[in-house]
């Protein structure tokens, strides 16, 4: 009996090892352990065994069965792994084939710059505000200390609708509108479209964008203006950017300044980009003129503040090295898709 | 404003600096230098030579061989073809290895032309004798130079000396951007004062002495000013027995460096004083002044006058004029008259130095289209105190140069003298504004450098009358900090009450909309806010269409930019057209921009500025893609109600059968459609174009992110398919309305899966098939629940004449 069982077991193990796939393995299982299998047959023939030997024989059969089952299971796992590996190998793809991409659109480069400026200033506690593009002469000029017949009015080549209404030449009127609301302190930036009667060419456009900024509080100083704008340009153009403030004149600020930054192309050595100067003029700024504060109902003895104005297109052209302003308004897909 | 650096150095004798140092320092103290150009930038090794001997060239008829003395022991040999060379002539000679600015033809060469010794037709030549063009200037500037040929220098020109220095070409011409508040800096003296303060050196202006004979000017001329507002001061003096001659070389040099052509001693003096002091002057032929009387008054409307350039000008009652007893003789501050101009035969001259109202001059010169050197000075608003000084300076030069005999005394009509203002000295306020800690004495020292005097008795700053821009503390603070140095101001951040950085909800929605449409493949366009009224014809608008009621710009750049847009369509179509013309495929653009809707015309108040989102595309995609993009936008901003579309939009520029109003919550929120083929062709686009225009104000008003979680239901869904035969004119939207109204609480969703017209469907009908999904929220639905709902739906459909498909 013992020998018979041993023979069955060895037979089974040999056949299991020979099985090259899961189906063959299953056939082996059925041949030995199935209802009509060889080992099952041994169990069935138990009645021929003497009753006193039965438990011992039963135990032997069960042990043989267990051993066969174990090897079957091991082999099954092994064959399954082989099958999976085979499948995976068969499914290798060329990952360098082109991507399936939906064509996405792109923001206008002006918008990208504006977003960046807004991000920097909202991070410093500024609110982004807007004002009308068709504006009253009062807000565009008079309230900014540019009275009727002031030569600065001529300099700005204003488009007029009538005596009182015009296309704003600057975003500065938004300052006045915010100040009039009297919610102090003020930290604001006002991006927007402005208009000047310039013929279209590579560096001029009758319609462009500015970003105005203003801070009004009790102890705001020119040094705060310097600090704020230095921080701004270093975030905008890189932390090594050097700044230079030069005295200038604007009717609505006093003292006034223009700010230059070291050329971000050559780092200040002088190149074609900065016309060999090493510096690029970037914005105008100054302390809000006491007259302007007073006209908007703010007491200049209690409050003071600073304001600045940046040409959005100027930064866009510099940052992206665009050499012709007309490209910004042609909306050629091949241009827009680059940003 | 330009100045010669040599002239500045004459007025600030201790000034020692390189060109670059000068320009940098001036810019940093507030007199911004635009550029500096050296007159001798392309000139090198040029000396004064004397032609000692001339021989004919053996092999060339047009060439001669000159032996030239250049101040050294040996003469040098130079071959020239210049026609005007002669023995004894003194000429500029560029030596071997030197450079000249241009060629024989007078054309300047960038970087100059290098001159080397060489052979001309076999004869050696060791340099070149120069014409004025080769020196980079013109016969206009050097009237004594020959038009063609060598520049023959005066006999007293010192041989061997640098010709560059001799001709005043060793100079830097500095161009400044003078801001409108600094009227005083539109003069060499003003700039020199700034330069002296900037470099902390002594400023030495010319000492002006009043000259004149024993006669009295009042015996020669009377002056009456009728309008003291427009003529704040009028100074007149007389010069007798004028003798014309070229002005001396030193004066010509100065004028040339300022870019002014020397003419004769009299004209040169007035120009010199205008440059030096910033005060324009005018000279009349005294013999032409009828009644020996000058009357300053405004013109009559329509008054005609011939100016000294021979042009007839038509004046109006705002134009200030200079008149004699009978006639007009000049337009004040702008140009004199032909009838009184100085000619070669003049004997006695009437000099005028006045102060006219800047605004009036500016407006008159604009109206007349005449911007002269004089008017451009006057329009800035001169200091009236300048007029007499300038007049006396001119007369001093007249005498010095021997131009004529100055009659004693001056007529000076100056009813309201302008005084300088006094401003309280408040050093703490300046420091508080600047964020600095500059001590009082230092501040005073800065101020006194520019003649702002501190009066310790009154504790005031006495501001001279030429600084009309200084009125308040902030002004004085700027004067202090200009010389303290902007770079020395500390760099700090505001430390007041903290504020929250934020953007408006509108702005927030705009950002979401941008990113959504960009995700849908649209790139952002920007177009102008103004356009041509002709675009409304291009867009096929009816003659009385509301959109034609646009705001007109009074002074547009041209008709193409003359009205403020009331529709965003033209900008989009133009941009698409540009792309189509450039063969860009499958273009999708969007624009977020305002249209301007007047509340009345002509406008008396600010118009409504409505921001529109405009989508436009050609190539891939159709009407229903566009519809999908619109709904994606709505979804992105939380507009979750059902969007409806009504074909009643009636827009002329869209395809009559392919357009719809977009309705949200009962309101028209925009429109979409295929562009009318005629409009597309008006914009030269040979493809179907689809557009959608949405009102951002309404989008913002309906946007909401206030979502509430709804229980996810796990009861099974039951689906019923509905196949219908529908009269052709019924819209699927009408069918969906029936579903919405009659579906009941268990109808979860529905989906169109087929629309078909043609065979098997009777004429005038179409087949439409929907699949409807029912689901209970609290229970498993029974057949009966669904049947009831279906019955109600079918009844509703029947009312529309819809039958179930057999």
TrEMBL record, chain A:
Pfam families: Phe_tRNA-synt_N, tRNA-synt_2d. GO terms for molecular function: ATP binding; catalytic activity, acting on a protein; magnesium ion binding; phenylalanine-tRNA ligase activity; transferase activity; tRNA binding. It comes from the Bacteria. It comes from Lachnobacterium bovis. The gene is pheS. Keywords: Aminoacyl-tRNA synthetase, ATP-binding, Cytoplasm, Ligase, Magnesium, Metal-binding, Nucleotide-binding, Protein biosynthesis. Residues 113-330 form the Aminoacyl-transfer RNA synthetases class-II family profile domain. One of its GO terms (biological process) is phenylalanyl-tRNA aminoacylation. It is found in: Cytoplasm. InterPro entries: aa-tRNA-synth_II, aa-tRNA-synth_II/BPL/LPL, Phe-tRNA-synth_IIc_asu, Phe-tRNA_ligase_II_N, Phe_tRNA_ligase_alpha1_bac, Phenylalanyl-tRNA_Synthase, tRNA-bd_arm. This is Phenylalanine--tRNA ligase alpha subunit. It is an enzyme of class 6 (ligase). Its EC number is 6.1.1.20. Tetramer of two alpha and two beta subunits. It catalyses: tRNA(Phe) + L-phenylalanine + ATP = L-phenylalanyl-tRNA(Phe) + AMP + diphosphate + H(+).
UniProtKB/TrEMBL annotation, chain B:
Mg(2+) binds at residues 469, 475, 478-479. GO terms for cellular component: phenylalanine-tRNA ligase complex. InterPro entries: aa-tRNA-synth_II/BPL/LPL, B3/B4_tRNA-bd, DNA-bd_dom_put_sf, Fdx_antiC-bd, Fdx_antiC-bd_sf, NA-bd_OB-fold, Phe-tRNA-ligase_IIc_bsu, Phe-tRNA-ligase_IIc_bsu_bact. Residues 713-805 form the FDX-ACB domain. It is found in: Cytoplasm. It holds the Pfam family B5. GO terms for biological process: phenylalanyl-tRNA aminoacylation. It catalyses: tRNA(Phe) + L-phenylalanine + ATP = L-phenylalanyl-tRNA(Phe) + AMP + diphosphate + H(+). Its main location: cytoplasm. GO terms for molecular function: ATP binding; catalytic activity, acting on a protein; magnesium ion binding; phenylalanine-tRNA ligase activity; transferase activity; tRNA binding. Its EC number is 6.1.1.20. SUPFAM superfamilies: Anticodon-binding domain of PheRS, Class II aaRS and biotin synthetases, Nucleic acid-binding proteins, PheT/TilS domain, Putative DNA-binding domain. Tetramer of two alpha and two beta subunits. Belongs to the phenylalanyl-tRNA synthetase beta subunit family. Type 1 subfamily. This is Phenylalanine--tRNA ligase beta subunit. It comes from Lachnobacterium bovis. The gene is pheT.
């Amino acid at each position: 009996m013992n020998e018979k069982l041993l023979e069955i077991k060895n037979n089974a193990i040999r056949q299991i090892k020979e099985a090259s796939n899961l189906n063959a393995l299953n056939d082996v299982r059925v041949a030995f352990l199935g209802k009509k299998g060889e080992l099952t047959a041994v169990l069935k023939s138990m009645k021929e065994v003497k009753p006193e030997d039965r438990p011992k024989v039963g135990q032997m059969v069960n042990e043989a069965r267990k051993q066969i089952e174990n090897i079957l299971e091991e082999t099954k796992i092994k064959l399954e792994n082989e099958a999976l590996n085979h499948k995976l190998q068969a499914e290798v793809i060329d990952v360098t084939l082109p991507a399936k991409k939906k064509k996405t659109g792109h923001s206008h480069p002006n918008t990208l710059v504006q977003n960046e400026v807004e991000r920097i200033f909202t991070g410093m506690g500024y609110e982004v505000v807007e004002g009308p593009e068709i504006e009253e002469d009062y807000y565009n000029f008079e309230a900014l200390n540019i009275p009727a017949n002031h030569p600065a009015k001529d300099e700005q080549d204003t488009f007029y609708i009538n005596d009182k209404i015009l296309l704003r030449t600057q975003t500065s009127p938004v300052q006045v509108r915010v100040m009039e609301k009297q919610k102090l302190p003020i930290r604001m930036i006002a991006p927007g479209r402005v208009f000047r009667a310039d013929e279209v060419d590579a560096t001029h456009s009758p319609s462009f964008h500015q970003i105005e900024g203003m801070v009004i509080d009790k102890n705001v100083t020119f040094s705060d203006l310097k600090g704020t704008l230095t921080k701004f340009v270093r975030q905008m153009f890189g932390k090594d950017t050097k700044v230079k403030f030069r005295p200038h004149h604007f009717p609505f600020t006093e003292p006034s300044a223009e700010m230059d930054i070291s050329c971000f192309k050559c780092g200040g050595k002088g190149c074609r980009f900065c016309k060999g100067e090493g510096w690029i003029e970037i914005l105008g700024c100054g302390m809000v003129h006491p007259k302007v504060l007073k006209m908007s109902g703010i007491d200049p003895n209690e409050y003071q503040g600073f304001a600045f104005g940046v040409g959005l297109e100027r930064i866009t052209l510099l940052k992206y090295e665009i050499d012709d302003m007309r490209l910004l308004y042609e909306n050629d897909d091949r241009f827009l898709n680059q940003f | 404003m330009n100045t010669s650096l040599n002239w500045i150095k004459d007025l600030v004798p201790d000034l020692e600096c390189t060109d670059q140092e000068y320009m940098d320092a001036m810019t940093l103290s507030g007199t911004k230098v635009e550029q500096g150009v050296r007159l001798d930038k392309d000139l090198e090794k040029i000396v004064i030579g004397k032609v000692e001997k001339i021989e004919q060239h053996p092999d060339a008829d047009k060439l001669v061989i000159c032996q030239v003395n250049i101040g050294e022991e040996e003469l040098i040999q130079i071959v020239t073809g210049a026609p005007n060379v002669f023995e004894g002539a003194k000429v500029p000679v560029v030596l071997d290895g030197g450079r000249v600015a241009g060629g024989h033809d007078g054309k300047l060469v960038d970087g100059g032309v290098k001159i080397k010794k060489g052979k001309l037709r076999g004869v050696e030549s060791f340099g070149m004798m120069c014409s004025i063009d080769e020196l980079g200037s013109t016969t206009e500037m050097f009237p004594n130079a020959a038009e063609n040929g060598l520049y023959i220098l005066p006999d007293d020109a010192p041989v061997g000396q640098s010709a560059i220095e001799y001709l005043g070409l060793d100079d830097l011409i500095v161009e400044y951007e003078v801001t409108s508040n600094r009227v005083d800096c539109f003069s060499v003296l003003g700039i020199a004062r700034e330069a002296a303060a900037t470099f902390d050196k002594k400023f030495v202006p010319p000492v002006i002495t009043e000259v004149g004979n024993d006669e009295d000017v009042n015996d020669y001329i009377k002056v009456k000013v009728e309008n003291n507002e427009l003529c704040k001061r009028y100074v007149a003096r007389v010069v007798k027995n004028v003798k014309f001659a070229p002005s001396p070389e030193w004066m010509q040099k100065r004028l040339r460096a300022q870019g002014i052509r020397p003419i004769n001693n009299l004209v040169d003096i007035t120009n010199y004083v205008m440059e030096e002091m910033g005060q324009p002057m005018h000279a009349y032929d005294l013999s032409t002044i009828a009644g020996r009387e000058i009357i300053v008054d405004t013109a009559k409307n329509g008054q005609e006058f011939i100016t000294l350039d021979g042009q007839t000008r038509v004046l109006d009652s705002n134009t200030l004029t200079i008149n004699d007893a009978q006639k007009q003789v000049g337009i004040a501050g702008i140009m004199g008259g032909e009838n009184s101009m100085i000619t070669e035969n003049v004997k006695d001259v009437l000099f005028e130095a006045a102060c006219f109202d800047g605004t009036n001059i500016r407006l008159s010169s604009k109206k007349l289209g005449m911007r002269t050197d004089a008017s451009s000075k006057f329009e800035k608003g001169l200091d009236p105190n300048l007029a007499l000084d300038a007049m006396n300076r001119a007369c001093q030069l007249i005498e010095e140069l021997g131009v004529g005999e100055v009659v004693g005394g001056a007529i000076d009509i100056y009813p309201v003298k302008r005084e300088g203002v006094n401003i309280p000295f408040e050093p703490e306020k300046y420091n508080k504004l600047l964020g600095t800690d500059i001590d009082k004495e230092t501040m005073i020292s800065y101020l006194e450098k520019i003649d702002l005097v501190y009066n310790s008795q009154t504790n005031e700053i006495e501001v001279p009358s030429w600084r009309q821009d200084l009125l308040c503390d902030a002004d004085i603070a700027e004067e202090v900090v200009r010389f303290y140095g902007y770079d020395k101001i500390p760099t700090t951040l505001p430390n007041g009450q903290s504020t929250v950085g934020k953007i408006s909800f509108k702005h927030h929605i705009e950002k979401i909309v941008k990113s959504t449409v960009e995700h849908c493949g649209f790139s952002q366009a920007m177009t102008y806010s103004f356009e041509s009224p002709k675009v409304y014809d291009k867009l096929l608008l009816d003659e009385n269409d509301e959109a034609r009621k646009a705001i007109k710009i009074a002074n547009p750049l041209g008709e193409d930019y003359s009205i403020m847009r009331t529709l965003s369509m033209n900008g989009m179509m133009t941009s698409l057209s540009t792309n189509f013309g450039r063969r860009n495929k499958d273009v999708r653009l969007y624009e977020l921009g305002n249209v301007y809707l007047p509340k009345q015309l002509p406008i008396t108040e600010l118009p409504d500025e409505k921001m529109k989102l405009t989508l436009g595309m050609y190539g891939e995609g159709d009407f229903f893609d566009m519809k999908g993009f619109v709904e994606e936008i709505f979804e992105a901003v939380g507009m979750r109600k059902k969007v409806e579309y009504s074909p009643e939009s009636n827009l002329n520029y869209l395809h009559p059968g392919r357009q719809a109003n977009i309705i949200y919550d009962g309101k028209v929120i925009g429109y979409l459609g295929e562009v009318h083929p005629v409009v597309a062709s008006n914009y030269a686009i040979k493809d179907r174009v689809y557009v959608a225009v949405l009102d951002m104000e309404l989008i913002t008003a309906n946007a909401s992110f206030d979502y509430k979680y709804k229980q996810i239901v796990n009861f099974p869904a039951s689906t019923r398919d509905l196949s219908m035969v529908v009269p052709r004119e019924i819209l699927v939207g009408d069918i969906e309305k029936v579903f919405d109204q009659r579906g009941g609480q268990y109808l979860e969703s529905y989906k169109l899966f087929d629309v078909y017209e043609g065979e098997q469907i009777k004429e005038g009908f179409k087949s439409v098939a929907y699949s409807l999904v029912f689901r209970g929220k609290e229970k498993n639905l029974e057949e009966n629940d669904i049947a009831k709902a279906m019955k109600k739906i079918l009844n509703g459909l029947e009312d529309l004449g819809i039958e179930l498909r057999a």
